[in-house]
Amino acid sequence: MSQEGIVLVASVSIFNETEGLIIKENKPTAFNKWNFPGGRIEYGEDILYSAQREVKEETGLDVKLIGTTGVYNFFSSTSNQVILFHFIGEVTGGSINLEEDEISESKWIRVSDLVKFKNEDLREPEVFKQIINNLFKKNLYPINMYNEQITNESLLN
């Protein structure tokens, strides 16, 4: 979702026992850049649902969100103000099936190797590294800090 140069984004670090999943983007503004699966939150969409939808669209995987590293506020390489909600997820189903128009590659990588990427290989490297730092320091928060989206129907009940 964007409004007057503000973009809302959800992204997810997906982990198995020892590795995390990263994707290589194939978009004009992030060509050949590694990132976590994620994308824009659509108008009217619940943040948690958006994170799961983006993972499914980009990777083919179903995920359960189990935590968050927080919210990140930065200016993108395209000069938009980005507010990024970053989650931690675990795979519950599906299989790797990349959205070929936007994602060229994916790989499972040891968490300790995530810090070895050069800035020029990452999309928004400062934010990526801040997320990695929070993961390593276990600066993690429970997923229940996010409330379900409030709708007119839920207000009536």
TrEMBL record:
GO terms for molecular function: hydrolase activity. Signal peptide: none annotated. Transmembrane segments: none annotated. InterPro entries: Nudix_hydrolase, NUDIX_hydrolase-like_dom_sf, NUDIX_hydrolase_dom. Keywords: Hydrolase. Belongs to the Nudix hydrolase family. This is NUDIX hydrolase. It comes from Oceanobacillus piezotolerans. The lineage of its organism: Bacteria, Bacillati, Bacillota, Bacilli, Bacillales.
